[in-house]
C-alpha cells in the first residue's frame, strides 16, 4: 500500500491530526519523565540499609535528670533489656539508618586537610555491630579497649581521640579509589583514626543523592547524651512483644525519663519512605490517567474518521480492497500519527527533563525510558485504534452504492 | 435564544451519549486533579502573617570559610553563629530584632506521678512576641532585661497550658522543663502560623505549633537541647557559643523600605568589619529577604508538591487537547446538519453560538464533576500524615476558582472546534447529501 494517499488524506484534517500529535507528544514527554522519577524513587527505597531489618526493634529514651552518669545508666538499662526473653542482643546507639538523626563530619586524609566528602558518624556500645547485624567484609571488629566516651558535653570531643573506625565499602572506594582502605588513616576530627574494618553496607540516617547515601563511619564511642536509642535484636515474630516488654522494663528502672518512638525497624523504614510511596502512587495514577485519556482520544477520533469515511471505504471495498487492507489502512494511519507524536514527544521529554533537573534537582532521564515510552505509546495507539479499524473493515462494499 | 441553544445542546449530547460522557469525564479528571493541587498550593503559599509580613526580614550573612567539600550547599541557609546573632541583637539597628532556635525538652506534669513527656518549642529573645504580633490569652512575653538576666520564665501555648493545668490559670505557676523550674508569665492564644516561617525550614515547617517559648540566653545557659541543623566547619571551643557553628535564626522588623536599605548596608559593613578580624572570608553579599521571598527561596513548600502541581497542570493540558479533538470530531460529524441550517439562513454567528453553548454545557458538567473529584482529592490528602495535610481545605475562593477554571477551559476548548465548524460552507455539504 502506498503511503502517499494516506498522508494526503491526513493533510486534509490538519487541525485534528495536529491536536492528536500534540496530545501524544505531551503524553510521551510527561510519561517518560514520570517513569524515570518512579524508577529513581523505587531504587532509593530498595537500597540495602546494611542492618538486620526484620529482627530489630528500637526505643528512644530521653533522660530528664542529667546528673546521673549516662554511661552507667545505659549499662543498667542494657542489662535489663538483655534479660527480656527473646532478646538476642541489645545496644545503645546514637542513631540508625532512616532515623533522620544525622551527625556528619567532613573526612580528610591529612590533618586539617580539605575534606574529600562528608560521612555520617555512628557511635554505640560494644554490641552495636552484632545487634544491628552488620557484615564485616574486611578487617576486624572494635576491641573492648578501643572504646571511649563520645563526650557530648564537650562538643562530641571523642571524635578527636578515638583510635579506630570501621567504614562502609562505598566510603572506602570514595576515599581510596582502587586501593585498600584497611590500615589507612582518616581525619574526621582533629586526630588520626585508623580504619580497622570495612562493612558491606550501612546507609546514612537521611538519604540524599544515592551515591553519598552509603558514606558512613562507625566509631568505638559510647554515647553519653541524655537522648539515646536502644536497639534490640530478636526473632521477627517476637518483635511486638519484645517492644512492649522493653517499654515496661525501662519505665520500671527509671520513671524519670521520656520513652519515645517505640517501633520496629520495619516501621521506621516504612515511615521514612512514606512520602515517596505517596508520590509514587500519585505519579502512577497520573501516568495511567494520561495514557487512558490519550487512548480515549485516539479511539474517539478514529471512530469519527471511520464514520466519516464509510462511503469511501465502501467504494474501496467495491473496487477490490480486502477487509485486511482496510484494517491495515487505519492501523498504518494511526502508526504515522502516533509516530509523529512520539518523535515530537522525545524532544519534549528531554526538554522537560532539563527543566526538571534545573528546578527540582531531579536526575537525568536515563535513555532507555524514551524508547520504552515510545513503543508503549505506539502499542497504546494500535490498541486504541483496533476497535474503530475493525468496524471500518466490516463496512460492506454495498455502502458505495447508497446515499 | 441561548435557552434554545442549551436545549439543542442537551438533546444533541443525548444523541452521542458515550462521547459526551467521555468528554465530561476527561474534563472532570483534568479539572479535579489540577484543582486539588492548586488548592493545596494556594493554602500552603498563603502569607503566614498577613499585614505584617512586608515588614519582616531574614538577614543573611555567610560566615563559612572559602573552600570546603563539594557536598556543601552553595547558598547559605541563613543560619547564624551565636556571636553574630548576639552582635546584631545588641547593635539593635532594626525596629525590632530577635534571635531564636527550635528546642525540645521533657516536660514534667504539674501533678506529681505522671510520666514526663516531650514537647517542642522555641528559644527566643524578647522582641519575638511583639515583632510577630503573637496573641496572648493571658500575660505577655518577657522584657529585654529578662534576656540579659537569664530569667527562668516561660510562655506556654494554650494547648500545653491546658495539658498541664487544665482549666486553671497557668499564670505565675511553675513548670518543670527537664529538671529546671520555670515561671509561667504568659499563655499564647492558639498561635499557629503556617508555615512556621521563623523556624529552620525543613520537612516539619508545616504542622504542630510551638508549645512553649523560653528566653534564648536562659536555654543556652542551661544547655537545653535544641532541634535542627547545626553545622560547624572547625573544632575547638564550645560549639554552641563558637563563631564556627551556625544554628540560630535571626529576624528583624523594618517598618519602611528606606530602613530596610539602611539595614542592608549595616549588614554589609558588619560583614566587612568581621573580615577585618579574619572571619567570613567569602565575598560580601549581605542580603535581606522579605518573609514571603524567604519562604520561596528556602523551598518551604516541598519540591514534591511543586512537581505534583506541574504534573497536574500537564495532565489538564492533555485532557483539554483531548476534549478539543473530540469536540471537533463531534461538530464536524454534524457537518450535514450545520450546512442545512446554514442553507436555511442561519448566520455563522448563530452556528458558532450554538456550538459554543454546547461546549459550555459539556464544560459545566465536567467542571461540576471536577469539583467533586477535587473534594475527594483534598479529602484523601487530609488523610495523609504530613504536616501540611490538615491545611488542604477548599475555601470559597478556590470553589469559585474551580468553576471558573472549568468554564474557561471548556469554552476555550470549545471555541476552536465551534469556529472551525461554523465555517462549513452550506452549498458544498448539501451537494454531497
Automatic annotation (TrEMBL), chain A:
Occurrences of domain ABC3 transporter permease C-terminal (ranges): 286-396
Residue spans crossing the bilayer: 20-39, 282-306, 335-356, 368-390
A GO MF term: transmembrane transporter activity
Compartments where located: Cell membrane
GO cellular component terms listed in the entry, alphabetical order: plasma membrane
Main location: membrane
Alphabetical list of InterPro entries matching this protein: ABC3_permease_C, MacB_PCD, Macrolide_Exporter_MacB
Top-rank taxon, per record: Bacteria
Topology term for the membrane: Multi-pass membrane protein
Domain called MacB-like periplasmic core: residue spans: 56-200
Keywords: Cell membrane, Membrane, Transmembrane, Transmembrane helix
PANTHER family xref list: ABC TRANSPORTER PERMEASE YTRF (PTHR30572:SF4), MEMBRANE COMPONENT OF TRANSPORTER-RELATED (PTHR30572)
Family from the record: Belongs to the ABC-4 integral membrane protein family.
The name this protein goes by in its record: ABC transporter permease
Source species of the chain: Dyella telluris
UniProtKB/TrEMBL annotation, chain B:
Protein's cellular compartments: Cell membrane
Residues in ABC3 transporter permease C-terminal domain copies: 310-426
GO cellular component: plasma membrane
Origin superkingdom: Bacteria
Domain (MacB-like periplasmic core) ranges: 21-261
Transmembrane segments: 20-44, 311-332, 352-379, 399-419
Keyword Transmembrane helix recorded: yes
UniProt topology in membrane: Multi-pass membrane protein
Single GO MF annotation: transmembrane transporter activity
This protein's UniProt keywords: Cell membrane, Membrane, Transmembrane, Transmembrane helix
Pfam family, one: FtsX
Coiled-coil ranges from the UniProt annotation: none
Protein name in the entry: ABC transporter permease
Organism, as annotated: Dyella telluris
Amino acid at each position: 500500500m502506498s503511503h502517499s494517499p494516506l498522508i494526503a488524506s491526513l493533510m486534509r484534517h490538519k487541525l485534528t491530526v495536529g491536536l492528536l500529535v500534540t496530545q501524544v507528544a505531551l503524553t510521551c514527554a510527561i510519561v517518560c519523565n514520570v517513569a524515570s522519577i518512579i524508577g529513581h524513587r523505587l531504587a532509593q527505597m530498595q537500597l540495602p540499609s546494611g542492618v538486620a531489618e526484620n529482627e530489630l526493634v528500637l526505643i528512644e529514651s530521653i533522660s530528664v535528670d542529667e546528673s546521673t552518669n549516662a554511661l552507667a545508666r545505659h549499662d543498667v538499662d542494657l542489662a535489663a533489656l538483655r534479660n527480656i526473653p527473646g532478646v538476642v542482643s541489645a545496644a545503645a546507639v546514637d542513631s540508625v539508618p532512616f532515623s533522620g538523626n544525622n551527625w556528619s563530619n567532613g573526612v580528610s586524609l591529612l590533618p586539617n586537610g580539605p575534606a574529600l566528602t562528608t560521612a555520617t558518624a555512628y557511635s554505640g556500645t560494644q554490641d552495636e555491630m552484632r545487634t544491628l547485624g552488620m557484615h564485616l567484609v574486611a578487617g576486624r571488629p572494635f576491641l573492648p579497649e578501643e572504646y571511649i566516651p563520645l563526650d557530648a558535653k564537650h562538643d562530641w570531643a571523642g571524635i578527636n581521640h578515638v583510635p579506630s573506625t570501621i567504614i562502609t565499602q562505598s566510603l572506602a572506594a570514595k576515599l581510596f579509589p582502587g586501593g585498600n582502605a584497611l590500615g589507612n588513616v582518616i581525619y574526621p576530627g582533629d586526630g588520626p583514626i585508623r580504619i580497622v574494618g570495612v562493612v558491606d553496607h550501612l546507609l546514612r540516617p537521611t538519604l540524599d543523592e544515592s551515591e553519598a547515601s552509603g558514606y558512613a563511619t562507625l566509631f568505638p564511642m559510647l554515647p553519653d547524651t541524655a537522648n539515646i536509642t536502644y536497639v534490640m535484636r530478636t526473632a521477627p515474630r517476637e518483635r511486638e512483644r519484645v517492644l512492649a516488654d522493653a517499654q515496661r522494663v525501662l519505665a520500671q528502672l527509671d520513671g524519670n525519663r521520656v520513652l519515645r518512638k517505640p517501633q520496629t525497624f520495619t516501621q521506621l523504614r516504612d515511615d521514612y519512605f512514606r512520602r515517596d510511596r505517596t508520590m509514587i502512587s500519585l505519579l502512577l495514577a497520573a501516568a495511567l490517567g494520561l495514557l487512558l485519556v490519550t487512548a480515549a482520544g485516539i479511539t474517539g477520533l478514529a471512530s469519527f474518521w471511520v464514520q466519516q469515511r464509510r462511503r469511501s471505504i465502501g467504494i474501496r471495498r467495491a473496487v477490490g480492497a480486502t477487509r485486511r487492507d482496510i484494517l491495515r489502512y487505519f492501523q498504518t494511519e494511526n502508526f504515522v500519527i502516533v509516530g509523529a507524536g512520539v518523535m515530537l514527544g522525545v524532544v519534549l521529554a528531554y526538554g522537560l527533563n532539563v527543566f526538571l533537573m534545573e528546578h527540582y534537582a531531579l536526575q537525568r532521564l536515563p535513555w532507555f525510558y524514551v524508547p520504552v515510552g515510545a513503543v508503549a505509546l505506539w502499542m497504546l495507539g494500535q490498541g486504541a485504534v483496533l476497535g474503530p479499524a475493525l468496524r471500518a473493515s466490516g463496512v460492506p462494499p454495498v455502502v458505495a452504492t447508497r446515499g | 435564544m441561548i435557552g434554545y441553544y442549551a436545549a439543542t445542546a442537551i438533546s444533541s449530547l443525548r444523541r452521542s451519549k458515550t462521547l459526551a460522557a467521555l468528554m465530561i469525564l476527561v474534563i472532570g479528571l483534568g479539572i479535579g486533579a489540577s484543582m486539588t493541587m492548586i488548592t493545596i498550593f494556594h493554602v500552603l503559599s498563603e502569607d503566614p502573617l498577613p499585614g505584617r509580613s512586608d515588614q519582616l526580614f531574614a538577614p543573611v550573612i555567610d560566615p563559612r570559610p572559602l573552600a570546603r567539600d563539594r557536598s556543601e550547599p552553595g547558598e547559605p541557609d541563613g543560619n547564624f553563629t551565636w556571636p553574630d546573632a548576639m552582635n546584631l541583637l545588641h547593635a539593635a539597628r532594626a525596629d525590632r530584632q530577635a534571635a531564636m532556635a527550635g528546642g525540645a525538652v521533657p516536660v514534667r506534669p504539674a501533678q506529681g506521678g505522671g510520666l514526663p513527656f516531650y514537647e517542642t518549642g522555641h528559644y527566643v529573645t524578647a522582641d519575638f512576641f511583639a515583632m510577630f504580633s503573637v496573641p496572648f490569652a493571658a500575660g505577655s512575653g518577657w522584657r529585654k532585661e529578662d534576656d540579659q538576666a537569664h530569667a527562668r520564665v516561660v510562655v506556654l501555648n494554650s494547648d500545653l497550658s491546658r495539658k498541664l493545668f487544665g482549666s486553671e490559670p497557668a499564670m505565675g505557676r511553675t513548670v518543670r522543663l527537664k529538671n529546671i523550674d520555670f515561671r509561667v508569665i504568659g499563655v499564647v492564644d492558639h498561635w499557629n502560623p503556617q508555615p512556621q516561617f521563623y523556624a529552620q525550614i525543613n520537612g516539619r515547617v508545616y504542622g504542630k505549633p510551638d508549645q512553649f517559648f523560653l528566653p534564648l540566653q536562659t536555654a543556652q545557659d542551661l544547655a537545653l537541647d535544641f532541634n535542627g541543623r547545626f553545622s560547624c566547619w572547625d573544632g575547638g571551643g564550645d560549639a554552641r557559643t563558637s563563631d564556627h557553628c551556625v544554628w540560630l535564626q535571626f529576624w528583624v522588623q523594618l517598618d519602611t523600605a528606606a530602613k530596610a536599605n539602611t539595614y542592608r548596608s549595616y549588614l554589609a559593613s558588619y560583614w566587612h568589619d568581621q573580615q577585618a578580624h579574619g572571619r567570613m572570608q567569602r565575598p560580601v553579599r549581605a542580603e535581606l529577604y522579605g518573609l514571603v521571598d524567604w519562604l520561596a527561596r528556602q523551598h518551604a513548600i516541598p519540591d514534591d508538591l511543586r512537581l505534583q502541581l506541574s504534573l497536574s497542570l500537564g495532565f489538564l493540558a492533555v485532557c483539554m487537547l483531548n476534549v478539543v479533538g473530540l469536540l471537533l470530531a463531534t461538530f464536524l460529524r454534524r457537518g450535514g446538519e450545520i450546512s442545512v441550517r446554514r442553507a436555511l439562513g442561519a448566520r455563522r454567528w448563530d452556528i458558532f453560538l450554538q456550538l459554543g453553548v454546547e461546549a459550555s454545557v459539556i464544560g459545566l458538567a465536567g467542571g461540576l464533576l471536577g469539583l467533586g473529584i477535587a473534594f475527594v482529592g483534598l479529602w484523601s490528602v487530609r488523610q495523609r500524615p504530613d504536616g501540611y495535610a490538615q491545611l488542604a481545605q477548599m475555601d470559597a475562593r478556590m470553589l469559585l476558582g474551580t468553576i471558573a477554571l472549568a468554564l474557561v477551559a471548556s469554552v476555550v476548548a470549545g471555541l476552536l472546534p465551534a469556529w472551525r465548524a461554523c465555517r462549513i460552507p452550506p452549498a458544498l455539504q448539501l451537494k454531497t447529501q
